[in-house]
Structures are given as C-alpha cells and as structure tokens.
Specification:
Layout (H helix, E strand, L loop, with lengths): L3 E7 L2 H8 L8 E4 L5 E5 L2 E3 L10 H11 L3 E6 L10 H21 L4 E3 L1 E2 L5 H13 L5 E4 L14 H10 L2 E4 L6 H4 L5 H4 L1 H15 L2 H4 L4 E4 L10 H10 L12 H4 L3 E3 L5 H11 L4 E2 L13 H6 L6 H16 L2
Parallel strand pairs: 1-5, 5-6, 7-8, 8-9, 9-10, 10-11, 11-12
Antiparallel strand pairs: 2-3, 3-4
Length: 331
Amino acid sequence: MRAIDVHAHLSPKIMWDTLDSGRDWYGVHLEPDDNGQKWLVTGEHRTGPIAPKSRFTSDQRIRDMDSMGVKMQVVSVAPVLYNYHLDPVLGVQASMEVNDEISMMVREHPDRFAGLATLPMQDVESAVVELNRAVTQLGLKGAEIDTSVNNHNWDESRYLPLFDAAQELGALLFFHPSNSPVWQRTTRYYLGNTIGFTLEDTLAVAILIFGGVLERYPDLKVCVAHGGGPACFGAGRMDRGWQVRPEARLHIQKPPSTYLRRLFYDCVVHSEAALRLMISTVGADRVVLGSDWPFDMGLDSPVEWINGLDFLTSAEKDLILWENLEGLLGI
C-alpha cells in the first residue's frame, strides 16, 4: 500500500557538520541543559532535547519509514530553522543551503522523498526568487512557511507576490508554526507546543480566510499542519462573527466555513474524535497523511492508525494515505 507523509522534518547535515566543527551555523548553536541533554538554539527559539533521529542519514531515515509503512516523505526543514530573524542576505544563503540538501535527497531517492523549500520570508522579493529556483530548478514541490513572519500576518499586502508566484507555479504552501505567544504567558507544561502551536495553525487559517487570501487566489494550494488546529471546531463561531460583525466581511462574500474546504489538513490531531470532526467538516478528500517526524509530538504509527479506524471506508483511507497528496503534488 502506498503512503505519503506530508509532515516530515529535516535538520540539515550541513548544520550538524558545522556545529560538530565547533562553529555556529547562521547563529544556531547547541546548549546543554541541567541533565546534560543538548538543545538547539537559534534566535529566540530553543528546542529540544534533540531527538536522535534528527541526525539520521537518508538510509537510516528510509529504514525508519519502512518500519512505519511510509513509502514517501515530503521533507521540510525543522521549523526552528526558518531563520526569519537573520539579515536578508544571510537568510537567503541559509535557505539555499537547506533547499539544495533537500533537493539532493530527492535526486538520490526519487521514489522515497519529495521536498518542500524553506524561504527567506524576511525579504519577500528574495523569497519569491528562491521559491522559483526551488520549484523550477531543484524539483521541489513548494515551500514550508511559518504561521506568521516576525509578527507580521499573511493577509498583509507585502506577501501578495509570494501568493502570486505560488499559484502560478502550482506550488504547495505548507503552514507550520515555529513559535507561539503562549510561551510569553507560560513556559510550563509544554503548553507552548501542545496548545500554542494549534492556536497558531487556527489563526493562520482564519487570516487566510478573513483576509481574503483564499478569495483572491482560488487555485492556491495550501496545507496546514496539525489538522489546522481547532479551525474546524471553530467554524460555526467564525461564521457567526461574519454574520454579525461588518469588519469580518471586509474581504469575503461568503461565510468563512465555505473556505475551509479550500485547504488541506494533515492528520496529526492525535484523536479519532478530532479526525472525525475534521472529515465531517471538510471531507476526507482534504485530509492527508502526516507524522511530524522525528519529533516527540508526532504520530508514531500514522499509517497503522489510519488503517485501523473503522469509521473510514477503504476509499477514504486511500485518499488520506496517498491519493490526495499524489494529486496535490503531482507525484
């Protein structure tokens, strides 16, 4: 059975090689905690402890995919390495190094890997140039981008050139958060990830809808990590706001819920009930397989989980496991 994982991250070898030599990689460095475990630090981000699989070679990665029943991973950079905080020139260099490495993985194992670029979004013009290079020269399928860019939201006019280019290229934009304001409220209990990331996913969905991005770009390909957070759960409330508040109707002529089916969502929701709700809201033809490999918040056995869900028909399982992504990415 085919299974394509849209949500699989890479910590690039060039970064590890640089760190192993005792140097920082574009400011990224390692810090030990009180238990001697190493954490990756870049800008204001600190993530860890580092998962051993983060340093896997392609061959080790493929063996792990085989154990999970995954035929192909759509590889994207670990979000902590977006590097949007860098000077634009350095941001371009860092993005190109990562994208070249992902492209090499794809060329060496075209039946096992597809790739998504990372973009220097602190400079939109440079991001558009790199997206074009990634798709037309490197053979990548689109780009992974954060749910915001240095506290700027995706409905701002500065980002229209990126959406123009992505739609024209047929490139997928995979939205995945790297940070959350929850961490400013509390650093306890890992809430910045468990709750904060899903809130970021939902906010990105809402901004794409209410900001008129999906209205303006009817053929834009968008997938949102972690099932879009509670966006589907909040569809009714978003519709109510659109009905009663004129500021919610500035850019869209239809209820927000009608735009939810314009997006794709991975299945990294961690409960059958959440997956049921998502599918009842947007349909199985908008849901794709994801694992969040190799991080601890991922699904250990996503293929086995989907195949074991009795409420899904065989046809719906095929849609989620591979058919939707084959069509979306032209694999």
